[in-house]
């Protein structure tokens, strides 16, 4: 897998599990791979019409195939031929229009996110100023990534010469691991992250517990901070709750400005619904707005999903949007996640991924300390998140006796009381499981 073209051929092959051969040939047959960057595959699409279709209908399928191929998130940038001509070797690809849409003007501000919004805008207008680093934290789907991209877009507009780097922490970790495994010159890795004017890292909590990554991030932070370069992190929790994070790195996070984002209140949810609907060219009646705002309360992504489904229902069914239609259109989304029970397979996969092990190792007979610990954690989480009996859990791990499963669960509970860091590990894995559906 040495070239972008090779990667693209493998991606198209993986997409066959989700799309028909006709669809792949129709929409991707004349799409060419231009370059493979660290966390992005750059593609050239022959027309704006085809690019819009791919972006709106098929981009998740492409990204899914890329993740399956690389085992971490890889974006796909879609260029037109005229944009490809200006794409010089070694330069970053033009900003994707999907990223450009994340602006401060399009961020719906309410009482639960106003402080974070104001701080982010201040940072974008005065990078490297008083609020450095800025640490934005809150649950998934509340707009943290939107604010990161809004900062990047505002700085790019005001300072075209600034070097801006956005990275997901998981991609940072995987890139570092890949470089270490292949014995590459680490100076290139360090130059990439330390020679920037604005450094934006999403979901920094994934760094915790990964010694080499923490070490590199620590020195990257120090280098940028000493040069008065702007640093912004997002996470799902405040620094003081990152118990597995090195103290020296946690101290760096805490020395800046922490800003939390809470789930949107009713008024903000109504405003979000109106904005999302107008972006898609539809107008929702007040009763529909009220119904959805009262029932969808968790995050912005769910609200956007509701609007998409209402719009699709209206287009396909040709019916007027009212409360009754809305209930029918969003029935699946309105179903509480509390009723969702993940499979044991999903939990085992996420535990194995967290501990960087193979799922088969967890199900196997190895008694090594690392594998046994991961296996015990998997059993505990399965017991907590599913309705499987101890005997049924044992069947997932090579037919282990129910008493063995119970002992493993009790062992995890005991360690959690003695070592709060394990509680944080289980929290991270549980969040990953919840995000997997």
Brief digest:
The chain has 437 residues and is α/β, with parallel strands linked by helices. It is 57% helix and 9% strand.
**Derived structural class:** alpha/beta
Rounded average pLDDT: 84
Which H/E pattern describes the elements?
HHEEHEHHHEHEHHEHEHEHHHHHHHHHHH
Q: Report the radius of gyration as a whole number of Å.
A: 23 Å
Q: What is the helix content?
A: 55-70%
Broad shape: globular
Task: Flag low-confidence runs.
Answer: none
Span between termini: 29 Å
Q: Count the helices. How many?
A: 22
Could you give the order of strands across the largest sheet?
5-6-7-4-8
Topology summary:
Blueprint: H1 4-14, H2 21-28, E1 32-36, E2 40-44, H3 48-70, E3 75-79, H4 81-85, H5 97-100, H6 114-125, E4 134-138, H7 144-158, E5 164-168, H8 169-181, H9 186-194, E6 198-202, H10 211-226, E7 230-235, H11 247-254, E8 257-261, H12 266-279, H13 286-295, H14 300-317, H15 323-329, H16 331-334, H17 344-354, H18 359-363, H19 369-385, H20 390-396, H21 402-418, H22 420-434
Parallel strand pairs: 2-3, 4-7, 4-8, 5-6, 6-7
Antiparallel strand pairs: 1-2
Helix pairs in contact: 1-3, 6-7, 12-13, 12-14, 17-19, 17-22, 19-21, 20-21, 21-22
């Amino acid at each position: 897998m040495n070239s972008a073209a090779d990667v693209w051929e493998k991606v198209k092959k993986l997409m066959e599990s989700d799309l028909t051969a006709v669809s792949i040939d129709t929409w991707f047959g004349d799409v060419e791979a231009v370059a493979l960057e660290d966390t992005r595959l750059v593609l050239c699409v022959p027309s704006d019409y085809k690019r819009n279709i791919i972006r709106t209908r098929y981009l998740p399928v492409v990204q899914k195939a890329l993740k399956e191929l690389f085992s971490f998130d890889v974006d796909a940038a879609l260029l037109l031929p005229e944009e490809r001509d200006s794409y010089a070797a070694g330069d970053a690809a033009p900003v994707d229009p999907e990223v450009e849409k994340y602006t401060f003007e399009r961020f719906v501000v309410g009482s639960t996110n106003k402080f974070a919004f104001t701080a982010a805008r201040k940072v974008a207008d005065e990078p490297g100023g008083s609020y450095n680093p800025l640490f934005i934290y809150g649950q998934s789907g509340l707009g943290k990534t939107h604010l990161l991209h809004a900062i990047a877009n505002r700085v790019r507009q005001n300072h075209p010469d600034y070097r801006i780097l956005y990275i997901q922490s998981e991609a940072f970790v995987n890139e570092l691991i890949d470089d270490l495994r292949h014995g590459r010159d680490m100076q290139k890795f360090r130059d990439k992250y330390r020679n920037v004017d604005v450094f934006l890292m999403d979901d920094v909590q994934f760094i915790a517990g990964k010694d080499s990554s923490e070490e590199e991030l620590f020195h990257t932070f120090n280098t940028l901070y000493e040069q008065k370069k702007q640093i912004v992190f997002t996470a799902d929790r405040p620094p003081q709750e990152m118990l597995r994070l090195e103290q020296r790195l946690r101290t760096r996070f805490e020395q800046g400005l922490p800003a939390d984002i809470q789930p949107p209140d009713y008024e903000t949810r109504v405003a979000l619904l109106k904005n999302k609907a107008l972006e898609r060219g539809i107008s929702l009646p007040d009763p529909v707005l009220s119904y959805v705002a009262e029932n969808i309360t968790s995050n912005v992504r769910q609200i956007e999903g509701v609007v998409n489904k209402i719009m699709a229902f209206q287009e396909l069914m040709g019916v007027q949007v009212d409360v009754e239609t809305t209930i029918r259109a969003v029935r699946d989304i309105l179903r509480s996640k509390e009723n969702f029970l993940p499979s044991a397979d999903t939990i085992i996969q996420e535990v194995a991924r967290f501990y960087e092990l193979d799922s088969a190792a967890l199900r196997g007979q190895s008694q090594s300390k690392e594998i046994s610990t991961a296996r015990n954690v998997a059993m505990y989480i399965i017991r907590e998140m599913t309705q499987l009996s101890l005997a049924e859990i044992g069947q997932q791990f090579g037919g282990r006796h129910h008493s063995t499963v119970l002992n493993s669960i009790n062992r995890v509970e005991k360690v959690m009381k003695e070592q709060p860091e394990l509680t944080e590990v289980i929290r991270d894995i549980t969040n990953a499981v919840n995000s997997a559906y």
